[in-house]
Amino acid sequence: MEEHRKLREFIPKEAVALQYRPLAESAPRVTAKGIGEDAERILELARIHNIPIREDADLTHLLGKLELETEIPPSLYRLIAEILAFIYFVNEKWKRENAA
């Protein structure tokens, strides 16, 4: 277990940002991606702007292979739909908690 934890410390963090405008685009697209310090900066900006963050290393790795401004392929639609549902849930929860 300890070796697994040490191994994770050496694996650089990876981050991918998606944007989806359903009225203007047919699918979400990759708007930023990075590894290491670049990934940390993407996550920092998301936190600053209250953008929900979902951790999924396998999906992030798949999305990281796409070029910037590329729409996600249909093979990933189901996984991305789960993320969009998560974001909707977080946004609705935030609205309820901050309504006053």
CATH class: Alpha Beta
Unreliable parts: none
N→C terminal distance: 47 Å
Given helix and strand content, the structural type is alpha+beta
Q: Give a short account of the largest sheet.
A: 2 strands, antiparallel
CATH topology: name from scop
**CATH structural architecture:** 3-Layer(aba) Sandwich
Strand portion: 5-15%
Description:
This protein has 100 residues and is an alpha+beta fold. The protein has a single domain (2-98), classed as name from scop. The chain is 51% helix and 13% strand. It is built from 4 helices and 2 strands; from the N terminus they run αββααα. The longest helix is centred in the C-terminal third of the chain and has 22 residues, at 77-98. The termini are far apart. The relative contact order is 0.16. The mean pLDDT is 87.
What is this structure's SSE topology?
Elements: H1 2-10, E1 14-19, E2 29-35, H2 37-48, H3 57-64, H4 77-98
In brief:
This protein has four helices and two strands, in the order αββααα. By secondary structure, it is of the alpha+beta class.
Q: What are the key terms here?
A:
4 helices, 100 residues, 13% strand, name from scop, alpha+beta, two-stranded antiparallel sheet
